[in-house]
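Data deposition worksheet. Section B asks for the primary sequence of the deposited chain exactly as it was used as input, without tags or linkers unless they were present during the calculation. Section C holds the resulting structure in token form. Section D is free text for depositor observations; keep each observation to a single sentence. Incomplete worksheets are returned to the depositor.
Section A, Depositor: J.P.
Section B:
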Amino acid sequence: MTFKEFLSSKTHAFILLVLSVIVLVLFGIRLCDHRGEPGYPEGVADSLAVTEPTYFYGICIDSLFVEEGRVEPNQYLSTLFESKGISPQVADHFARHDRDVFDVSKIRSGNRYYFLSTNDSLETPLFWIYEIDRQNVALFSLTDSLTAWRFQKEMEVNLDRTRGVIHSSLWNAVIENGGDASLAANLSDVYAWTIDFFSIQEGDAFDVVYERQFIDGTPVGMGDILYCDFLHGGDTIRAIAFEQDGQAGFYTEKGMNLRKAFLKAPLNYRRISSTFSNARYHPIFKYYRPHHGVDYAAPAGTPVSSIGDGVVIKKAYQARGAGYYLKIRHNDTYTTSYMHLKGYAKGIAEGVRVKQGQVIGYVGSTGASTGPHLDFRVFKNGTPIDPLKLESPPANPISEDNKAEFQKIADYWMSVVKETGVPAPYVEPVEVDSLAVDSLVLGDAVVLGSL
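Section C:
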């Protein structure tokens, strides 16, 4: 059969077509495998390359014109829109209907914004984008739909470590060693139940591992404290972060909860002006009488917090005594009293339940007082005791069910902090089925042994 006769056959022609397609496909695969090699046809790589679209806060901007600006002092959204020929009704619509996304009346001077417009001679605005802060962005569609939504930048979390010796205050020591004020405040919160930071001594020291938060490579804040050794008065108090029963907390290496039933002090004070005594000379009444409390000198208006959960059982005024004062019953054993207050926090009334650390009032000088201070008293079974000697029972320790998991984390941190530098995050070990591994090893051994 001649080639012409072969082509005249429909069946043979179909076979030839299929073979041609197969050859072309194989040639294409061959080209893909050798792109960039010597001898590869020029221009083929460029024709096969696919250009990735460019997105800006989730919007493809390949065919758009992007204009950046900053909010000027005393500038409103309506005037900003007006500069782009956008109707004031559009700004009014967003102000009335999209406050749940962002209240446009709160745009701040200096914040960055963008207009995304058509990339032509008209430059018709299609979107307005406003950076609320470093992480949160509000986007507004300027087309007929007039919709608004939020975009949140991805936050990167890295570990950091700060160590220092205290010479004057915890705050100064943290700053001097590369930390920031938020780290000092968070450390105070971690140890609020075990250390009175107004009794910090020179030579006390800390070593803390914590999370630092970054957006676009710029530090924006700190996350959680994961581990800390705090040397106070010659004793090292260890804090290991652990979540138990859905509640995050800090525990010693033995699994004891750092949180106690009571705070060490009900306020941030400057000094203790008077201590617990059975015979103190009263500066106003000019005779000796019992003073069954501790006087904390502090500026008027300093917030006063309840040292523990409880119920307000007394809210009253005593002209020649406690002035404005509160009494809180914490349990069947302990009651506390807060005297000479300037006033009460909002919502405080007899019968109201309060939480540990909740602000209940403010330092004042009401009643029989010579200056602003808090007279703080503690009663155990109705008998006054020295607040500075109060032995606070701890909260729940690590439970039996969580001991094994906690011990893994505790052992990890206590081992890695012995080394210098920033440790790597704790990673939960992957459990491997030992029976399956043994079977695999034994199986290989059998095969090898049978050869």
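Section D:
The chain has nine helices and 24 strands.
Residues 10-33 form the longest helix (24 residues).
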